[in-house]
Design goal:
Length: 240
């Protein structure tokens, strides 16, 4: 969760073009299909000949069912987005692989969303950006900073200050969905210590919020979001 005590966002990010934050595709793809490289299994090569015929005959005599199939893998959710060239992003702060991937997703989504808000905006498509997460000696990883990264980039690109005393957490997808995260209790405690008054949480984490002790929720205004558009209205468009 990224706490905001002033008017600036804490991070900088970048990457896409399509003028709608919900453009792109969100599809369920079978994992075996998604992972296919177009190569036939090795066993298929050189499978003919006397030895192979003998093995097949032995299997048939043993009653091995010909239709036996390995278990079908679970389906995997996949996102696709279209990105323009130009602009770049460098990240520092001892970030893990998942957090680095989150910064790239945030960069792509921020570029697309900036065009939605300001059609002529091209800042994120040409700017060379540097995002640093403080306490550089401390390893950091996970996807939950995605929403804060997008907000930081848009604050910079659009010249809009982030709402004061605001903290947010949530993984974002390329299509602008805000996905659930873990560690809600720890994040809320950190927000309380930072003097936060408003918290943005993914809608899917409502149960985690309700289960918190009253003393942790006291004095905090909670905002549940399902898409990045919800985040934008709270964090950057609050004066409208």
């Amino acid at each position: 969760m990224a706490a905001q005590s002033g008017g600036e966002a804490f991070a900088r990010t970048s990457s896409d073009e399509t003028p709608s934050p919900m453009n792109g595709s969100h599809a369920n793809a079978d994992a075996s299909t998604a992972g296919s490289s177009g190569c036939a299994p090795a066993a298929a090569a050189g499978s003919e000949g006397p030895a192979a015929e003998a093995a097949a005959a032995a299997a048939k005599e043993a009653g091995t069912p010909e239709e036996a199939q390995p278990d079908k893998p679970d389906a995997a959710d996949m996102d696709s987005g279209r990105a323009r060239g130009g602009g770049s992003l460098m990240c520092t702060g001892k970030l893990g692989d998942v957090m680095l991937e989150s910064s790239k997703i945030a960069h792509t989504l921020a570029r697309r969303y900036a065009r939605t808000v300001q059609p002529k905006s091209s800042f994120l498509e040409r700017a060379v950006l540097h995002m640093h997460v403080p306490e550089g000696s401390t390893p950091k990883d996970g996807p939950s900073a995605g929403a804060a990264m997008v907000t930081s980039l848009l604050s910079l690109a659009l010249g809009k200050p982030v709402r004061q005393h605001l903290a947010m957490t949530g993984e974002v997808s390329l299509t602008g969905l805000v996905l659930p995260i873990g560690g809600v209790k720890e994040k809320v405690i950190a927000a309380q210590r930072a003097g936060v008054k408003h918290i943005i949480l993914p809608s899917a984490n409502q149960r985690d919020w309700v289960e918190l002790p009253d003393n942790l929720r006291e004095g905090l205004e909670i905002h549940f979001v399902s898409t990045y558009d919800d985040v934008y209205q709270i964090a950057l468009n609050y004066e409208s």
